[in-house]
């Protein structure tokens, strides 16, 4: 969907699906290998990024061992998946989500895959994020929810 708010800055609206699981962002030293618990646990969401500075993982929070101490963990995230697949030529997808969320005081952590984009928001701010995105023309559904089952 494309809504022309002005010729110079078209407003895109997207369908977003809220994932059912809490996620965590994990930082490990760049010399680390991917922990076995990340590879053998619930892989409904697993993202890995290696850089010179770090190994970052986004995993289902329940997959992290209770005694994990090898790195930093920032838990309590929920993923809003942009329904895709998305064309690589599309521009402004993240901006159409990030700008209204920033204006309503919701910080994001973005993850992109070949098919689509994910915007992670803190679970404590999920209702505010969903309300804000709906107000900006985006459609929000919840994973596992029947089409006739409203969230609120």
From TrEMBL:
Pfam families: A9CJY8-like_N, ACT_7. Residues 73-135 form the CASTOR ACT domain. Gene3D superfamilies: VC0802-like. InterPro entries: A9CJY8-like_N, ACT-like_dom_sf, CASTOR_ACT_dom, CASTOR_mTORC1, UCP008459. Residues 24-67 form the A9CJY8-like N-terminal domain. This is Amino acidbinding ACT domain containing protein. It comes from Acanthamoeba castellanii (strain ATCC 30010 / Neff). The lineage of its organism: Eukaryota, Amoebozoa, Discosea, Longamoebia, Centramoebida.
